[in-house]
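A protein record pairs a chain with a discrete description of its three-dimensional fold. The following entry can be read in just this way:
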Amino acid sequence: MIAPRLHPDKHIAAQVVAREIADLIEIRSKSGKYTVLGLATGATPLPLYAELIRLHREAGLSFQSVISFNLDEYAGLGPAHPQSYRYFMAEHFFRHIDIAPGNIHIPDGLSTDTTQTCADFEAEITAAGGIDLQILGIGRTGHIGFNEPPSSADSRTRQVHLNDVTRRDNSVFFENLDEVPTSALTMGVATILAARRVELLAFGSGKAAIVRRAMREQPSVDCPATWLQRHAACTFHLDPEAAAMLRD
């Protein structure tokens, strides 16, 4: 079941989700437990990461007891590439907080054996005890992570081909469309659904149609985000523009 939660704007939404993350970290750390976070990249979670950095700097929130797993990485891009997701996470989040480098997990975009790399990634999630809270965005194709349609509910971490719509949308971060990788390594739908909590962020009118599809259509491979309807604790955090097509 997906629970929609409307916020005045993306910054208020970021504050709410950041507070939920902070509370989870603090509760688990008091019990001597690690918090396992699933993280996303792109423009959507940037306000969230900014708020978590603020809580770290101004309110003493520590990430020393956090283990993180990123959803995906472009195939063919190494950590020094400015458009790799490892670089993105370092610039926008990790280098501003006190998370241990060894607790950061991002698929290896330069892997020469992606099957083994993806299997190892799944094993690392299992060894960490599973993901406590997964952050998601949503693409216009209905992809979560880089699970493009068609993606089944039982898919696991793997290499996928990127939809032309996704590549065009992401080309704003590159010099031109030809530079956008054609494939990526991504957590599978089943990997995402195994998280104990899922918090999806969607902002702006450009996300309104796909938010409606994700929440109203029957779950199917044609819109992978619809599989989130089967999750027991999934919240869509929306601003008024992204929620505009849910009113009827």
Observations:
- The helical segments are 10-30, 46-59, 85-92, 114-127, 164-170, 189-193, 208-216.
- The chain has a mean pLDDT of 97.
- The first strand starts at residue 2 and ends at 6.
- The domain at 2-246 is CATH 3.40.50.1360 (Rossmann fold).
